[in-house]
Amino acid sequence: xxxxxxxxxxxxxxxxxxxxxxxxxxxxxxxxxxxxxxxxxxxxxxxxxxxxxxxxxxxxxxxxxxxxxxxxxxxxxxxxxxxxxxxxxxxxxxxxxxxxxxxxxxxxxxxxxxxxxxxxxxxxxxxxxxxxxxxxxxxxx
Length: 141
What we know:
With 141 residues, the chain is of the alpha+beta class. The protein has a single domain, classed as Transcriptional Co-activator pc4, Chain A (Roll), CATH 2.30.31.10. 23% of the residues lie in helices and 45% in strands. The chain has helices at residues 56-72, 122-136; strands spanning 2-8, 11-17, 34-43, 46-55, 75-80, 86-92, 97-104, 114-121. Strands 1-2-3-4 form a four-stranded antiparallel sheet. Strand 1 and strand 2 form a beta hairpin. Helix 1 packs antiparallel against helix 2.
């Protein structure tokens, strides 16, 4: 299982990515492979852990956008899993500040949701990019 984290001063988001078969017939209609992972979010004194359904193509697009915003120290990234159980927004400013916010719902048939905000900066994001790079290299685009 692969893992990447988005860390900040008041919390983190850790995503563990499960294995996929890499078989051609398993490619999602939108591209990439579907994987079931685990997510652990801590924001201040609040925390949520649970299952996360995502796609390697979504992860690749997130990685490219994150790298570009980090390099330019500006911009906004919106990442939503195809099952809509994680919505993540990352905003960069020219001073190197990064705000990570969004919400996580493990099961849509239950009324439980964690709304989070994590204050970060460019130095934390550099490690996220490094970890994502090694994960992304395992999957064809």
